[in-house]
Amino acid sequence: MTEVKNMATGGVHMKGFKDEKQYLIHLISQAINEKKAGNPPKNIKWEKLYNLACYHKVSNIIYYSLKDVKDEYKMPEDIWQKIYGDYKKGVAKEAVQHVMTEMILEEYEKSRIECIPLKGYVLKGFYPKPDMRTMGDIDIFYNEKKTLEVRQVMKNMGFKIVKVEDKHDKYYKKPFMTLELHKSLMGRAEPYASYYKDVWNKMKTRDNSQYIYEFSKEDFYIFLLVHFTKHFENSGTGVRSVLDIWVYNKKFYNEMDWDYIKDELKKIKLDEFEENIRGLSEFWFDNKMVEGKKREFYNLLGEYILSSGVYGTVKNSVMVAMGKKFEEKSHGKKSKYIYGFRMIFPGLEGMKKRFNILNRFPFLLPVFWVFRLVRGILFRRERAFRSVESVYSASDKELAEILDLHKKAGLYKKA
């Protein structure tokens, strides 16, 4: 087997790749750098590779690095057809989402609704091909005072409102247009809510617009990292989030005011975390040579992210919450039973976030405990049982390791 650069292990020259995880990182790296894929592992399981790519919502990306070498590497035709199909769906979906979102923004401008498109819709423009950055839904933040006007515009455009929450409303239109329209960037109780309290002051209007806003390059990057952190802290986040960090830095690193970025990140205690995630992105996608303890750390951090999938896992979510909750206490069976009880019967403040009516009638808390439990059993049984199982199957060692990894990454810093 000819020697290739192993992107998953920081550019070390090796005779191939150890497993499908490493090869997936390499395929993404080659695609995003507009290059062909190197030789696969000797005994590669193509179906396992494809499933892992789907798990991280990047199966469409690897089309680009494999399309010219699939026959040479003897990829099974059925796997290739799945990858090709995901690529075609990605292209079609991006086209529909883009046209429809621009139409929505145009209607908001006409209706004088202040708003700003977020996350993937902005990021896709910085990828070599916009369809590389798939999106399950489109996120737009708008002035909450204009909620009635927003709902009228969406109704006029044929969208149906399918979910109403404190933080955002969800709309849907066939064939696959899902929008999350955010009334606030952060929930009231979320860690970074105070930082984004006066968020409109961090924005400016787009060129040739009075009501469509955008962040500065620096503030968009900070928001991107905050969003990344929320997922990472809770249930974990996937390869695509790290790729977003790399793509954005590749585009704007030399144009951004890093003194401002670091000062702002220090305010929310994410300066060290940003350095580590940016370092991992370079280790994976920029062929950066890293050795020693830093290399070991990136391998550990990368393995955690590769195991998390694009939106994290239930087990990660439970273990992180347990680890933080009982950091100063023993992690024995008693702690697990206490946490399990609290998960089934949350406190009043936690329940208020889920059920607004409890803000007015807190004495109904036991009624909504029962309602939540019955709803979980009837409609969310699999996730509910996975959560409970995760509580009692998590070992003391696992809790300590996941908490230690988060600390080493730069989270939970004290003032």
List keywords for this structure.
single chain, about 425 residues, alpha+beta, two-stranded antiparallel ribbon, about 10% strand, disordered N terminus, 18 helices, 9 strands, 5-stranded mixed beta sheet, globular
How would you describe this protein?
A hairpin with a 3-residue loop joins β5 and β6. The protein contains 18 helices and 9 strands. It has about 425 residues and is an alpha+beta fold. α1 packs across α2 (about 45-55).
Briefly characterize the structure.
The chain has 415 residues and is an alpha+beta fold. The protein is built from 18 helices and nine strands.
Number of strands: 9
What is the oligomer described by this structure? single chain
Amino- and carboxy-terminal Cα gap: 52 Å
Instruction: Supply Rg.
Output: 23 Å
% residues in beta strands: 5-15%
Task: Determine the mean pLDDT.
Answer: 85
- In percent, how helical is the residue content? 40-55%
- The SS-based structural class is alpha+beta
Strand arrangement in the largest pleated sheet: 3-4-7-6-5
Taken from the alpha-carbon principal axes, the silhouette is globular
Helix count, per DSSP?
Answer: 18
Main sheet summary:
5 strands, mixed
Q: Would you list the SSEs in sequence order as H and E? A: EEHHHHEHEHEEEEEHHHHHHHHHHHH
Low-confidence stretches: 1-16
